[in-house]
TrEMBL record:
Family: Belongs to the MurCDEF family.
Organism whose genome encodes this protein: Mucilaginibacter yixingensis
GO biological process, one term: regulation of cell shape
The gene coding this protein: murD
Enzyme class at the top of the EC tree: ligase
Catalytic activity: UDP-N-acetyl-alpha-D-muramoyl-L-alanine + D-glutamate + ATP = UDP-N-acetyl-alpha-D-muramoyl-L-alanyl-D-glutamate + ADP + phosphate + H(+)
Protein name: UDP-N-acetylmuramoylalanine--D-glutamate ligase
GO MF entry, a single one: ATP binding
Length: 463
């Protein structure tokens, strides 16, 4: 089966901008942006959020004279829509979604909707880990090269709002599996799949093959003129590709072997990228982003830049000057010779593995939060090699204790960022690293991972 034939049958397109009611479920960044674009295109727009709408989004909807409700759904209104744009956070099992499906109302995502109203080139990046970093790095390279480029998707301002208000030639979109599930006719000119490791399986009936299928939707609708950039070292990606057909040009990146076309690492630790017969070379020591996982991220961004015919000098300068995003292996400060790193965005075990893999001993690791059924086994070897103490930050730390009590000498429970930082500081000595990389969601003690990261940084700066 080709990717473009998957999951498209039930989606009929409404008339472009021909009026009729479009309903938007969820009034976050993507929903409010989609509402603005839909209104601009001549639709009657109604926004419905089962929870409470943040004040800034409520104010925007009022300014734009867009009808909205919060704290529940008026089903009679929603079920009368010609099309529904759903927030990626709303699962298929939500009662209103089930009712819409039962009556055949098309349900799409913001990316699908906004993609109808722009002819910009689309660079779409997905993966279980590293997609925010790779998206940000790719955007940085293209912007520094002088391209008229927008940044959207799971990062920055809503794609739909930018389509309504800007005229970019290229968009770099970070695309999650939830977003991909609601994309049907949208096409990526350049699709990047970084890796596939277990995550969000509760949304996929706890079946890995369902999650894998979702990730591969990044390549649906691609043609021979398009590119699919993928990690040839990732087992789930390789296995998934063997089961699928692709019309696009396949370009791998790898650090385990040499490839004729794509990116690889030579014996002298240089990244070699070859997309059109001309080689680009750069030492990994020159990369702004260090660690094995970031070599992969840099390769994916570098291939994308070469495909878009960015000059080698510009790529090299940008990959050397990039500053990482907030809450992703973000250096906070060095105090008494101890380095403090904020990796609050690591909300799953794989992300924490990548963080630890890029560290040198000795690490005081701050771990914990809302456990999503984590399997900590994959961290055990790295914890034994690099971690001298674990500071648990969460309401229930039993599973972390069970996983690591035989691997580290010291484990301490804390219930606030300030307490965790104080204890980690006293456990560390000059030359050590205190790493916040929780492997868990943040909702037990914090509003979100950003809140957790900011409280951590504030506590470090108060030492």
């Amino acid at each position: 089966m080709t990717e473009s034939s998957q999951n498209t049958a039930a989606q009929k397109l409404p008339l472009q901008g021909a009026g009729g009611l479009i309903c938007i479920l969820g009034a976050g960044e993507s929903g409010v942006g989609a509402a603005y674009l839909a209104k601009q295109q001549g639709y009657d727009v109604f926004v419905s959020d089962f929870g409470q709408i943040a004040d800034k989004y409520k104010q925007q909807l009022q300014e734009w004279s867009i009808r909205f409700e919060e704290g529940g759904h008026t089903e009679s209104e929603i079920l009368g829509a010609v099309e529904v744009i759903k927030s990626p956070g709303i699962p298929e099992k939500a009662p209103i979604v089930k009712k819409l499906r039962a009556q055949g109302t098309p349900i799409i995502g913001e990316i699908e909707f906004a993609g109808r109203y722009t002819d910009a080139k689309m660079v779409c990046i997905t993966g279980s880990n590293g997609k925010t970093t790779t998206t940000s790095l790719t955007y940085h390279i293209l912007k520094e090269a002088g391209l008229n480029v927008g940044l959207a998707g799971n990062i920055g301002k809503s794609f739909a709002y930018q389509v309504a208000t800007e005229k970019f030639d290229v968009y770099v979109l970070e695309v999650s599996s939830f977003m991909l599930d609601d994309m049907y006719q949208f096409k990526a000119d350049i699709a990047v799949l970084l890796n596939i490791t277990p995550d969000h399986l509760d949304r996929y009936d706890y079946k890995m093959e369902n999650y894998v299928a979702s990730k591969f939707r990044i390549a649906q609708n691609q043609t021979a003129a398009d590119y699919f950039i993928y990690c040839a070292d990732d087992p789930e990606t390789v296995k998934g590709m063997e089961q699928r057909e692709f019309k696009s040009q396949l370009i791998p990146f790898t650090i385990e072997k040499q490839v004729e076309r794509g990116a690889y690492m030579d014996d002298n630790n240089n990244i070699i990228i070859n997309t059109n017969g001309e080689e680009f070379s750069m030492s990994i020591s020159e990369l702004a982003l260090q660690g094995r996982h970031n070599v992969y991220n840099s390769m994916a961004s570098g291939i994308t830049a070469r495909v878009l015919e960015i000059r080698d000098k510009s790529i090299r300068e940008s990959m050397g000057s990039f500053k990482n995003i907030e809450h992703r292996l973000e250096f906070v400060a060095k105090i008494s010779g101890i380095s403090f790193i904020n990796d609050s965005k690591a909300t799953n075990v794989n992300s924490t593995w990548y963080a630890l893999e890029s560290m040198t001993p000795d690490v005081v690791l701050i771990l914990g939060g809302v456990d999503k059924g984590n399997d900590y086994d994959m961290l055990r070897d790295l914890v034994k090699q690099k971690v001298k103490a674990i500071v648990c930050l969460g309401k229930d730390n039993k599973r972390i204790h069970d996983a690591f009590e035989n691997d580290v000498e010291v484990m301490v429970n804390t219930t606030s960022a300030a307490e965790a930082v104080q204890i980690a500081y006293h456990l560390a000595k000059k030359g050590d690293t205190v790493l916040l990389s929780p492997a868990c969601a943040s909702f037990d003690l914090f509003t979100n991972y950003e809140d957790r990261g900011r409280q951590f940084k504030a506590a470090v700066l108060e030492l």
